[in-house]
Design brief:
The structure is a single chain. With 260 residues, the protein is of the alpha/beta class. The chain contains eight helices and five strands, in the order ααβββαβαααβαα. Strands 1-2-4-3-5 form a five-stranded mixed beta sheet. α1 crosses α3. The mean pLDDT is 94.
Length: 260
């Protein structure tokens, strides 16, 4: 079988990214596009327009995940899923996650303009609240589909204003059906920018992710004892800031020991 070498249209991709970068733009060149906000709705609307322009079958599931399906020869077989997320941190970048969705769109555009039919169907996915900046924990859309989180758990999560995930989802008009969740997946591919220095330092252009950060939040209260700032000898002082600094330093040492 002859393999055709294809290339993306760089100019077109950058134009698509520039349109995205105007939705929720902030002064420093970044984006503030929290999940299920008005800005997220505008970006979702634009994304759906792009999907429909490529004749993809567009659907939304009960977590607000958006899918664009391009059929293949083995249309009843498992899909090749590609994508990421379009929501950002409060002061996020214009490529983080977004690049994975918009490059997936560019892949479809290239296949379409060359008239290439794939063996398996391709599904572009925009997952909801991957960042977790508004509703915590992160990766709720993908976690819901994967069965890591229950629907009740996700729906009842609240933002800082007390609005639930379910309320926000309905408010922006992206409450879909459970039957629309992706079910049969052959492979999932996600292109993502590197957010650290390793690939650049090693002069490599691509790497494979083997894990992602896991966080546990602890609230620690260190209590000292008030005394006169001047005549109190150092050996009699009970300064919580000093003790806290030692704790922080020791925590950093422990993480380095674990890494080693």
């Amino acid at each position: 079988m002859e393999i055709t070498k294809l290339s993306i249209n760089r100019t077109r991709l950058l134009e698509t990214i520039n349109i995205s970068s105007k939705i929720g733009a902030i002064d420093n060149g970044g984006l503030n596009r929290l999940a299920l906000t008005h800005e997220d709705k505008l970006m979702r609307n634009q994304f759906c327009e792009w999907l429909k322009a490529e004749n993809l079958e567009v659907r939304v599931d009960d977590f607000g995940n958006i899918y664009g399906r391009r059929n293949g020869r083995k249309n009843n077989g498992p899909a090749i899923a590609i994508g990421s997320h379009l929501d950002t941190q409060p002061c996020g970048g214009r490529y983080d996650g977004i690049l994975g969705v918009l490059t997936s769109l560019e892949v479809i555009r290239v296949l379409n303009e060359h008239g290439i039919e794939t063996d398996y169907p391709i599904e572009i996915i925009n997952f909801t609240n991957e960042e977790g900046a508004r509703f915590s924990p992160p990766m709720l859309g993908s976690g819901g589909v994967a069965g890591v989180f229950t629907k009740d758990f996700i729906y009842n999560l609240k933002d800082t204003n007390g609005k639930t995930f379910e309320e926000a989802l309905k408010e922006i008009g992206y409450m879909g059906d459970e039957e629309n969740r992706i079910k049969l997946v052959r492979n999932f591919i996600e292109l993502h920018i590197e957010q650290g220095p390793i690939l650049e330092r090693e002069n490599k252009t691509i790497g494979i992710v083997e894990g992602i950060q896991g966080m546990s939040w602890l609230t620690v209260k260190v209590i000292g004892e008030s005394n006169h700032a001047g005549p109190t000898p150092m050996e009699n002082r009970k300064d919580p800031l000093v003790i806290s600094s030692k704790m922080i330093t020791r925590i950093n040492e422990l993480t380095r020991e674990i890494e080693a």
